Amino acid sequence: MKHWQPSGTVYGCLLNFQREWDLWTPRMTQDPHKAAPQAPVLYIKTANTFCPAGQELLLQDGVREVDIGATLGLVIGAGGQVAGAALLNDWSVPHTSYYRPPVKFRCRDGFLALPQQFTPGQVSDWAALQIAVRRNGAWVQTIDLRDLVRDLPTLLADVGEFMTLQPGDVLMVGTDCLADGSRPRAKAGDHVEISATGLASVITTVGGAA
Amino acid sequence: MKHARIAWSGAIQQAVASDGQLLITQGPHKGQRVNMGEVVWLPPLAPVAQARTVIALGLNYADHAKELAFKAPEEPLAFMKGEASLIGHQAFTHRPAGVAYMHYECELAVVIGRTARRVKKADAYDFIAGYSVANDYAIRDYLENWYRPNLRVKNRDTCTPIGPWLVDAADVPNPMALQLQTTVNGQVTQSGTTADMIFDVPTLIEYFSSFMTLNPGDVILTGTPDGIVNVKPGDVVVTEIEGIGALTNTLVKA
Q1: Which of A66, A131, B128, B155 fits as disulfide partner to B151, beta carbons 3.0 to 4.6 Å?
Q2: What residues in B contact A43, CB-CB < 8 Å?
Q3: Tell me, what's the pLDDT at B72?
Q4: Is the CB of B147 less than 8 angstroms away from the CB of A47?
Q5: CATH class of the domain whose range is A10-29+43-208
Q6: What is the pLDDT of residues B4-45, one digit of tens each?
Q7: What is the DSSP string of A118-134?
Q8: To the nearest whole angstrom, how far is the Cα of B22 from the nearest Cα of chain A?
Q9: pLDDT of res. A164
Q10: What is d(CA B169, CA B1) in angstroms, rounded to the nearest whole number?
Q11: pLDDT class for A69, splitting at 50, 70, 90?
């Protein structure tokens, strides 16, 4: 069976979990940001990042460690409506500044791990979804979509205010941080599994220089 | 050759510029000549299997960087755009009601022709299929200092006209010495030269391919020089690059 890949553009959303928003709040009005973000802060995962189920993430070009970015991607169908959803691992090179676009951190080859297939459904199916992250078999994080700053309908509406999601596009709802603001990380040799009830898991082996 | 992708006779057609007309090159109408005023112009980019990567550069001309009160960047300031923001020549771009400052940006668009990964500057031209003209509109009212320039400024529906032509790389001997010009309702408002890019085209290809794969059909919008002004509904904006083409766009109320 051929494993799923998005046919359209994949968008990600920054600062959409309350914990990270709260940690950032004291700095939001400082330079260089000067104000809290008003609109959703989005980024794009280009097609070179798509890593179909079963392929490993190869760390290369000097990258030794990556942030694990467990998230839910809403898959857009006919008429711009949500047709389904998929768990995704939105890998990124750890970065502490959110000032400039994150191309070098997020658009590297293989930096979006995909499940075997997406799951048809509607937005309300995932309003209280809990996503578990395990590294080498050990639990490291649970993401709870009840902790979103913009819940799924709000995010879709606020994104739709300035751009039209096309059939085949994917809108990722954001990745959560740990209590200290960092994200769980992985390095060569690690095995990372993202799972949630009712959705296909995303399982990735990380390769590269150990 | 100058290639166009047009809608005509109820279907999408491939065409080339020929003696002031469009000559259809494929399909049942192959060999047919059509007047340029009789077609709908689409972005001059062949469809690709997966979402096309569209990279855009900010602050890539020394004078524009100065105009915007930033020091020149030490590495390319790049952001990504969704393919859905692209529209063709002679199309309409929406200006939302109530915004104070929306401006065009005339940019040389580089279209990748071969899969590029870890390409050296000296070899970079071998990976280019051709060039086009893009107008990378921005609405500054929506600028926020989070992943700036943010997508609400730069990834709007209808806000990235591109075309009319894809000009074969072989027909552009030196893309780093082309005059750029924008007119608004016939008045010249922007003029510059690609010679003033901070990071030239080979440097950009080396930089991006050092950490990501560029695929055939991917596009790099290389930034804009000094001379951006506010445009309003009804304005006709022509962004033109010497030897590449003149891209016409009309602003309308959203």
Answers
A1: B155
A2: 80, 147, 151
A3: 64
A4: no
A5: alpha beta
A6: 999 999 999 999 999 999 999 999 999 999 999 999 999 999
A7: -EE--GGGGTT-EEEEE
A8: 31
A9: 96
A10: 9
A11: very high
Domain segments of chain A as ranges = 10-29+43-208
Give buried/exposed letters for A40-64 (b at 16+ CB in 10 A, else e).
bbbbbbbbbbbbebeeebbbeeebe
For B80, which of A34, A44, A109 is closest by C-beta distance? Answer: A44
Strand B40-42 and strand B77-81: the pairing is unpaired
pLDDT for B207: 98
Q: Please tell me the distance from the alpha carbon of residue A77 to that of residue A92, in angstroms, as a whole number.
A: 27
Q: Write the single-letter amino acid at A175.
A: T
Residue pair A128/B173 in contact (Cβ under 8 Å)? The answer is: no
- Taking a C-beta distance cutoff of 8 angstroms, is the pair A8, A169 a contact? yes
Determine, for residues B147 and A108 on separate chains, whether the beta-carbon distance falls below 8 Å.
Answer: no
- Confidence (pTM): 0.97
Q: Which of B241, B238, B236 is nearest to B222 (CA)?
A: B241
Q: Note whether B207 contacts A: Cβ–Cβ < 8 A.
A: no
Confidence of residue B76 (pLDDT cuts 50, 70, 90): very high
Interatomic CA distance for residues B214 and B220, integer angstroms:
10
Chain B residues touching residue A7 (CB < 8 angstroms): 50-51
Instruction: Measure CB to CB from residue B156 to each of A10, A104, A163 and give the nearest one.
Output: A163
Average pLDDT for A98-127 = 97
Residue A186: which H helix or E strand, with range? Answer: strand A185-187
Residue A20 CA: distances (Å) to CA of A7, A10, A105, A180: 30, 22, 18, 9
3-state secondary structure of B35: coil
For residue range A46-56, list pLDDT tens digits in order.
999 999 999 99
Angstrom distance (rounded) from CA A180 to CA A196: 24
Would the pLDDT of A84 be above 90?
A: yes
Mean pLDDT (chain A, rounded): 97
Rounded-to-integer distance, Cα A177 and Cα A154, Å: 21
Q: Which domains does chain B have, with CATH numbers?
A: 1-42 (2.30.30.370), 45-253 (3.90.850.10)
Q: Does A46 contact B82 at a Cβ distance shorter than 8 Å?
A: no
Residue of A nearest to B116 (CA): A48
Give A-chain residues touching B78 at CB under 8 angstroms.
101, 103
- CB-based contact B79 A101, cutoff 8 Å: yes
